[in-house]
Design brief:
The complex is a heterodimer. By secondary structure, chain A is of the alpha+beta class. Helices cover 32% and strands 25% of the residues of chain A. Chain B is an alpha+beta fold. In chain B, strands 2-1-6-5-4-3 form a six-stranded mixed sheet.
Chain lengths: 453, 162
């Protein structure tokens, strides 16, 4: 692609082409998704040798498996012979992967185990066997049990890539389990929208929009008559969007190196304030929270428990596509499939040693927020689709991202601002420009003539 | 007790009535068909056993359903404009259990929705638990098993119950 793509990001503005241009999307798949650390899954999905799951890195289909040597491996879900998918399962256990087309068979570390009628190949085949393994993800690493992969052989290690503020979100995720374990389970919500992936990561740190865009949902929540019973956790989740503008502004937003960011928590605020007015049911969520706190105190003592539970953030966004929420025991990942099509996958976790109904709370919250039927995020996705349609036409090039540009605050390790400051989106766009301007190194050696003589 | 044919006819007419209320967006009349502790469930997994240890496409009690229809009704959201036009085609109506007081009925449902230049449709199997209430019924539970519930590429948003 010719021209300097970083020029599409200006001071406080970006070109609409970032969202619509299919050629730019192809460059993003190489320069961003083809280079950074992308979240693949959680170690609790791979307890035993042969355990596996399939996922995506950008558009690439990836198998992640625990091999008999106890190590985790990740590689393309594509036979090196003719390209057929070798693992049709979402998750499970396998001794090996056999291609359904010509029975090339691979071990769970991705290496080629056998091909039928081997005598049909010349003696040089033995020397090529290593190169015919399922294409490995160049680098693989875990942080706090969360598995990441990168297509780039070189670059920052995972801990450096995440940085201290993002690592804290994962630390707190684990710290909130009384026994220190997490289990990723309970299925996946998948919301698809016909819009660019960046619309969602901008939206997830945008604290000006909830009171406006989600007004109809908040208003419906306000009109609910609970009939003297404690509100449900789903109701709390919807209602929490109804903070006033000044309350949203009081929350803090932090913009970090490499495009990451986080925002202060708002659910606690809304729920705690409602709790003062609300009735507490014996089997309600507020009593459950107290029971959970007791299990934490039993495991860690009161001081440490208060410290862990005081960590009050909502989304921590790991650029380009991961949203981490330790308080809800939830992560979301964006899988872009085209410039104008994105899937958002939501995952939840069971906290080891916590009351079982804490997991039900996570299930109910992800239903309310991230099921395709959510009355909150449905409005986000509807507006994304209208943005996408509108950006396809017209002559004006620029979108405005200047809110709060003179009110940014310097912080240790980044910048920040009041809740409605667009500093975090500008930071995402800056990271985008830097990635797109950098030289792209193909992950595999395309020049290598593996066909031999 | 009616003959089984009459019973089948009465149950079927009730289910048609519910579909009509939804298609005509008569939201309050529709919700009045539901008992106070009714559950509306659309599982994520084919054959899903529980709604409390696994995510669902819909898992709503009457309060959450009321919140949902309130929002559709009051037209506060410009994003719900224009409202969807829908047809619910019911077929293969069967009564699978009938104790007199309690009826379980299943149908195949084709849900067709038109909105903003797009028509989409879904096929599902729907199961109702009904309580006999005089000449009619109250809905205790409705479960909608979407044929493509667990489609890997996910779903665009669902605004209304099916």
């Amino acid at each position: 692609m010719s021209g300097n793509l970083s020029e599409l990001v200006g001071r406080g503005r970006v070109s609409r082409r970032l969202y619509t241009d299919p050629d730019i999307f192809e460059e993003e798949m190489k320069h961003i998704f083809g280079r950074v650390w992308l979240w693949l899954g959680h170690e609790s999905q791979l307890n035993n040798p042969g355990d596996l799951f399939t996922t995506r890195m950008g558009r690439d289909r990836i198998i992640v498996a625990r091999h008999e040597d106890g190590e985790i491996y990740a590689f393309d879900n594509r036979c090196t012979h003719r390209g057929a998918e070798v693992c049709p399962k979402k998750s499970g256990n396998a001794a090996h992967f056999e291609c359904p087309y010509h029975a090339w068979t691979y071990r769970t570390d991705g290496s080629l185990k056998s091909v039928p009628l081997r005598k049909g190949y010349d003696t040089g085949f033995d020397a090529r066997v290593d190169a015919l393994a399922l294409e490995p993800v160049a680098r693989l690493d875990s942080y706090q049990g969360f598995i990441f992969g990168s297509h780039a052989a070189d670059g920052d290690d995972l801990q450096t890539y995440l940085g201290p503020d993002v690592r804290e979100a994962f630390d707190n995720f684990v710290d909130r389990s009384p026994d220190g374990t997490l289990e990723m389970t309970g299925g996946t919500t998948v919301q698809r929208y016909r819009g660019n992936w960046k619309l969602q990561i901008e939206n997830s740190i945008d604290l000006l929009h909830p009171l406006i865009l989600h007004h109809s949902a908040v208003d419906a929540a306000d009109r609910v008559d609970h009939g003297g019973r404690e509100p449900s956790i789903e109701w709390d989740t919807v209602k929490a969007n109804g903070l006033s503008f000044s309350e949203w502004d009081e929350l803090h937003v932090a913009a970090l190196p490499r495009g990451h960011c986080w925002m202060g928590g708002f659910l606690t605020k809304a729920i705690d304030e409602d709790a003062e007015k609300a009735v507490m049911d014996e089997n309600g969520w507020r009593v459950l929270q107290a029971q959970y706190r007791d299990t934490m105190i039993a495991a860690h003592g009161e001081e440490r428990t208060d410290e862990v539970l005081a960590f009050n953030r909502h989304n921590t966004i790991v650029y380009p596509n991961l949203l981490v929420n330790s308080r809800l025991a939830q992560v979301r990942i964006l899988h872009p499939s085209a410039a104008d099509c994105t899937e958002q996958h939501g995952y939840i976790f069971r906290r080891g040693g916590a009351p079982e109904r804490m997991f039900e709370a996570s299930v109910r919250m992800v239903n309310a927020n991230n099921s395709p039927s959510s009355i909150v995020t449905s409005d986000d996705h509807e507006v994304f689709e209208r943005i996408q349609e509108a950006l396809e036409y017209g002559t004006s090039e620029w979108l405005d991202w200047s809110r709060g540009i003179y009110q940014e605050r310097k912080l240790e390790g980044g910048t920040g601002g009041a809740g409605t400051n667009e500093v975090a989106m500008r930071n995402q766009h800056r990271a985008w420009a830097e990635y797109m301007a950098a030289e792209y190194m193909a992950p595999n050696n395309m020049a290598d003539d593996t066909a031999g003589a | 007790m009616n003959s089984s044919f009459e019973r089948w006819h009465i149950v079927q007419q009730f289910l048609f009535h519910e579909a009509r209320l939804l298609d005509e967006r008569r939201w309050d009349d529709w919700l009045n068909l539901y008992e106070d502790d009714a559950e509306y469930w659309m599982p994520y997994e084919w054959g899903q056993k529980s709604a409390t240890d696994h995510v669902s496409l819909f898992f709503e009690d009457k309060t959450l359903l009321r919140m949902r229809i309130d929002r559709l009704k009051n037209d506060l959201s410009p994003l719900e404009w224009p409202p969807a036009r829908t047809n619910r085609h019911l077929s293969n109506v069967q009564i699978t259990e009938d104790t007199g007081d309690r009826v379980t009925a299943t149908v195949y449902l084709a849900f067709v929705e038109y909105r903003r230049e797009e028509q989409r449709w879904f096929s599902s199997r729907v199961t109702w638990s009904l309580h006999t209430e005089g000449d009619s019924f109250q809905i205790a539970a409705k479960r909608v098993d979407l044929l493509n519930c667990d489609q890997e590429s996910g779903h665009l948003r669902f605004a209304t119950p099916m």
